Every structure is written in structure tokens, then in C-alpha cells.
Amino acid sequence: MRKVLLFTALICLVATGAMAEKLPAKKATTTAYNYPDKGYLFEGFEGAFPPAGWTMTVVGASTWGQGTSGIEGVSEAHIAYDAVTPQDETMAVTYTVDPGDDLFFWTMGSQYWATNANLTVLVNGNVEYDFLNDLTYPGAFTWYPVQVDLAAYEGMTVTVEFNYAGLDGADQHVDAVVFGTEGWMPPPPPDVTFCDFLIDATGTGTFYGDTCDGENLVEALGCATYSEAGLEDYYEVRVPAGGTFTATVTNTADGALWVLGECMAPAGDFTCLAYADDTLTGDPEVISYTNGGSETVYVYLVVDSWGTGSCGTYDLVFEGAGGAVATDEVSIDAVKALYR
Ligand SMILES: [Ca+2]
Ligand SMILES: [Ca+2]
Ligand SMILES: [Ca+2]
Hints:
Blueprint: E1 55-57, E2 65-67, E3 76-79, E4 87-96, E5 102-108, H1 111-114, E6 117-123, E7 126-130, E8 144-149, E9 157-166, E10 172-180, E11 191-193, E12 205-210, E13 233-239, E14 244-251, E15 255-260, E16 264-266, E17 272-276, E18 285-290, E19 297-305, E20 313-321, H2 333-338
Antiparallel strand pairs: 1-4, 2-3, 3-10, 4-9, 5-8, 5-10, 6-7, 6-9, 11-16, 12-20, 13-19, 14-18, 14-20, 15-17, 15-19
One calcium ion binds next to loops.
């Protein structure tokens, strides 16, 4: 959806669309279930349970099994609490520790209830991790990555035991066990991008647009007073060092404006350079941006509105003022002219 706008004239608003470089998509962490090489997931509990090579020590009625709340894949090792019968449940595996190897895994549980029944990880019988006393655990039932230093065990073939013991604790979860130099991490959130939706428009003056064929890609950033769930139009603006612009937008919806630092961001976490939602439906919103840096930047003016799915026609009065010398990056004469 590439839109071409009416515009009255001169300078400054540059839209190229091709200007923003697309970064290569990050590759998700390789996950090879039961793959023994370092750097790969050692055990994600996605297959048979217990996994090949693991041994179980069952004492209580409730013990380690396969759960469906995995942070990696779908499955995990899960143990339900037992308020009646004491538990002392162990799942164990052996591993030969090479120099630099540590043990990594993810866990989730409740430290409040861990005073009753706790997860510990033992290496050759030594407690090397204690969930109850892990001061960095972020909060109840949050998946959290743990690293256990195995330096003391280099060169040894060790037995690693995940032990859950006590009475009337809380459910505990373990997933993504790795031996090596780097633990498993979730793939990064997908990028949100409007780089392909930029409006072809060059100049200053008054622009007319309609957001009703747009999308809602910008909604809640740290700079916002309100959640702007309306549909959007996007303008790329070239701003030389010292340059400044002001955009005044009158929207038939309850308008809102953003100036963002990029047109693509992981999980839509755009850099908010300016924001405005100060007036109600039909009244103009005003936003300004000044490039205080020493180099030309490209920023993104987003015409948005308040209200889920809201949209409307608008007029945009764009005023730019220069400073600085235009670069040769953009071969549009009008753009150069503005900043001479
Ligand atoms: Ca898993
Ligand atoms: Ca929006
Ligand atoms: Ca408004």
C-alpha cells in the first residue's frame, strides 16, 4: 500500500520508502532436541518423558512429568505440589564437563511456597542452585533463565539432579536445559514495520490524507498519554543537523501524532521522539521535532488517532526550517534547496 499525496510545493518532506534499510531477520536460536553438542539445546522435554538418558527417583504420589507450559517449544518438565504426601522427587542426567561449560536452564515456580517445598540442583551431590534463595528470581510463576557455574567440575563426568522436595509447595517448571557456554534464549520478538507504507510526498505546505486504509502499528509507547489504537499514515522526514519541523494536523477523528526514530522496530518498540494528543476530535494537533545532533537524520511522522480502529481524513500543514548543509544522500533538488 503505497500512497501518493497531493502536496503544494516546495521542500523538506521527503518520502522515499527505500531509505530505511531492512535488517536481515534474526535467526531463532537453534533448537535440536536431545542434540548433545554444545551450543545446542541439551533437553527441551518435547519428546518422550523421561527423556533418553534421564533417570527418575520417585518418592511421592506427585512427581516430575511432562507439562505443557514450556517456554521453549510446548513441553517442559513439570511437577505439581502435593499438600498431603511429602515429595522428594529427582530427575537426573550425567554429563562430561568440558572447560568453559556451565549448566543453563529455565525455571518457574513460587518462592513464597518454596519455603515448604523447594527446587534445588545438585552436581555430584553438591547443591549448586537453590530456587528459594535465588535473589534474582523476578516473581512468582515467571519463566527465568538460570546459569550454574560448573568450573569446579571441569573434566569430570558429573551427575546433575533436579530435586524438588518438601510438602505443600507450589508447582515447579523446568525447560531448556543446556550444557555449554551459552543458554537457550527465546527468539527475538518479530519486527513491526511500516517502512513499506511510507507516503510519497516531497515538500512543505499542506498535505491531505485519509488514515482509513491504514493499519494500527503504533499504539502504546512510553511517551504516550493515551493508547492510540487508531489507524495511521506515515511520512519519512529528512532533517539535517539543526533542522526543525512542525506538523499541524487536523483530523476528522480524535487525532494523535508521533515522531518516531525508525520505521521498523522489534515488537513495535519504536523510539519515540515526540508525541501529541492534546485536543479532541476536529481540533488540530501540533508536533515539532528538532535535530539537535551533528548529522542528518530521517525520522517518521505518524498521523494517528485515539479510539480502537478510528480513522479519518486530515490535513497536514508541514513547516520546516533549516540550518546545516544538505548532504548528497538524497538527490532531490528541492530537498537540497531548503537547507542551503
Ligand atoms: Ca520445551
Ligand atoms: Ca495507532
Ligand atoms: Ca486528539
